[in-house]
Amino acid sequence: MASGERSSEKDGRIFAARPPDRGKQRRITDFWGPVINTVPFPVATGIPGSAEMSHPREETTAGRKQSYAAMARRSMPNIDDLPDPIRAGNLTKIMIPQEAYEERLQSFSHALIGRVNFCFVSMDEVRAEAKNVWNLKGKVTLAPLGKGFILLRFEVEGDMAAMWKRGPIKVKGQIMRFQRWRPEFNIHEDPVQTKLVWIRYPELPMEYWHEKILLSMGKASRCPVEVDRRTIQGNMGNYARVLVEVLLSGTRVEEIQVERKQPGKDDLFWFKQRILYEDGIERCTSCKKLRHLAEQCRSKRNTERQPAEEDRRPGGTFQVTKEEGGAPRSEEIPTKSS
User: Fold this and answer.
1) Residue of 174, 72, 63, 169 whose CA lies nearest to 112
2) Greater pLDDT, 187 or 12
């Protein structure tokens, strides 16, 4: 047996150039065994530096391998068919393809804009909340827009409407508000300026309680969302109720004129209808403050009420004004000590 060779005591095979035995340390031959390949490895073409390899996921055309770059180039539109830029002095204009823009708009048909304070909650926590808590029927895609704004695109229209009506919601203790997505939304110029409010049409005759009629009337308040279920069923006859999206600032329409034609005639019939907003943001005509009406104004009641007597204190006095013979007279009456 040549130098450097050692015979195996088990099967008598000879292995060349084996390292010397190191006691209890396992030898490389202890790891030899059959190898079963379940996934084929890429096989190079044999050309040094070549990036082309056979792969089971690659498509083939007429026996020829298609690389990813080739497939990407095939899916791109023809650049020569796109509009060319127009240079007008120092300005360069681009007329974008209208059909491409309208096609992209369709992907935002079930979209909302949300806003949350990212100083206290992360985007991953918002995604986890949407997946585990919102109980959506379809998928939702969330994309941060900056300054706390989030774009939410829902797969199912019902999920979008449900979250819009449910808001504002809490995510990890932080308030998240929603508004409907609209074209040309800009996080620097368009903060959240709208909210959903239920409005009432008090004493509206029930022959007008039709969904199309009420939604048409709701457009006077801005953007109607839905009609109350009890209104459609006619369970409450003293007022009709519609959910609308209104602006947080600006004036609100508080009365409209409803017009229609007489059945079978061209004569015009009209009536005026009041609108009440249920969000509690009413403007007092007395003190000019918000969140209460003039009938609830404390300042107005205090002004109209005559100070007939002062606060009674133990051992003090209060004044009572009396009129005798047309001349007012005041006298002090001591209070009883408790």
Assistant:
1) 169
2) 187
